[in-house]
Specification:
The chain is an alpha/beta fold. It is built from 9 helices and 7 strands. The structure holds adenosine monophosphate (AMP) and manganese (II) ion (3 copies).
Length: about 280
Amino acid sequence: MLNYDLHSHSTASDGSCKPSELVEIAIKNNVDVLALTDHDTVEGVDEALKTAIGTSVSLIPGVEVSVSWNETTIHILGLGVDPKSKQLNLGLSALREFRKSRAEEIGRLLELAGIPDTYQACVERVNGGLISRTHFAQVIIEKGFAKDIRKVFKKYLVKNKPGYVPGQWADLKEAIDWIKEAGGVAVIAHPARYKLSATKLRKLFEEFKSLGGGGLEVISGSHSDLECIRMADYCRQYDLSASMGSDFHGSFHPWRHLGKLRAMPEDLKTVWQLDSWPCEAIIKK
Ligand code: AMP
Ligand code: MN
Ligand code: MN
Ligand code: MN
């Protein structure tokens, strides 16, 4: 089987590597099929595609769309999307607009909590790109208010903490529609990460499936062995396809590695076996 890694981030969102560097790491780590899935943007796809030409890596254009579902933020991957799709880009640009106002508000709240000038520092850091909480985390660490990224999130950036601003992201239906309109397959990213009860998780899978969603990320850099086993079972129960991805962010999440994932259970139907899988043409091997 080819080595698939269908979830990764570049400097176009909150990864530390440029899209070209990401492709180079993929080559080094023997990844055959890499999807670039930045948060709410396809800005990095062009550079990644260009770098991958003539190499051992097949690059799949992707995106990780932020969605608000029953007051929970969830992430929907679009795999094999056309980065030029009008509807997708229109949708994503609205999410990036929300990111701008949210970032200002986070900066204001952190100021009140005694950490000054974080918004301006983020603006300078991203150089015209989008601002995510990962950038705030980096800035807070640099200013000496916390030791590492996990501690920053726990102390400042999650629900009920001083720098938290609730998400106002896309509807689940909207996100799936944009992805499908752009020719892609919609996949629920790291489904075990949302702190949803089993009942709510089932409701999410049912709704996702009925709206035309294609798969679940069973093997994820942020799932434990047990979580992978549970998500594999949900794929079987709901007849959803399985995906796998590291959620690589470079040095910002140093515990995740590109292309080094657990094996996919052999009986599962995978996203790359779907009739609607849009990427066969770009996979060279
Ligand atoms: P945002 O989309 O701007 O709200 O930021 C979400 C991103 O923050 C995720 O994609 C992760 O990269 C990062 N993140 C979220 N929670 C944590 C955490 N507990 N520790 C480290 N990084 C986190
Ligand atoms: Mn991220
Ligand atoms: Mn995510
Ligand atoms: Mn991600």
